[in-house]
What does this fold into?
Amino acid sequence: MKLWLGTTCLVVIAAAVSISAQSADTRAFRPGARVYITEMPDDFDSFLKAALVAKKVPLNVVSSRDQADFEIKGSSETQKASAAKKAVLLNWHSDEQASISVSNLVSGEVIFAYTANKKSSTHGKQSTAEACAKHLKERLQKAK
Amino acid sequence: MLFRILVASLATSLALSIATPEAQTTFSQDEHGRIPRGAKFFIGPIGSGYDIYLAAAMMKKEVPIVMVTDRDRADFELSGVTESEKAGWAKIVFWGNTSSSEQASIKVVNIKTGTVVFGYNVNKGSSTRGKQSSAEACAKHLKEKIESGQ
It folds into this structure.
């Protein structure tokens, strides 16, 4: 009787562990994950959203933080070409730098982060946003 | 009898793994300023979004820590300051150098004891990659500190 009870208990616990592992798995950062992009300085979030589409990053961007499993935070900085750079180097392009981090909203863990730095960026913020999107896509493809 | 003991011990270990999932990741914090591998770090907000550059640098340099966004879940808190200075016209005209000057300072505090366990300053006169360079220098030295085990 005791042996039967012990075995039943073990089976129930094993099932609970399996269910718990599956529910955690659905929140894994893989293609199709729901992400919320927070507001960023200089509207870099808009550039990032456009870049995610341009680079075909397989993520579902949601408009509400409550619907998301992951959150993307970021920062961006633009340095316009100075008069000296234009006059001496004949270069009108801006210098861009941006950084993003992706965190799991449930565990609070930062699972991905990337910094892009473009000297004389041909397409301004678009270049850094697309660099971030490209590396995010690579990270997702590894998680497949 | 042996089978019963085996079943009981398996059940206990499984129950423990469900009830206290964080028990596996906890560690004893050293009182002598050591930062153990796998420690949970909270990076507080730093001006100009430098905290995000630092998070990216930690990833790139493979610093053996877990970064969390909630201070209550962290063992250590990283805070800092940063300052950038654009290249002036003289630097561009005479040196043909458009790189900015960067300086940053970080400190790591053990949240439980309040002890400062690590501090580092970086100063780049002509930073090739702006904030990224200074953030990666900080990450590199933090990694050295953790790996040295001191």
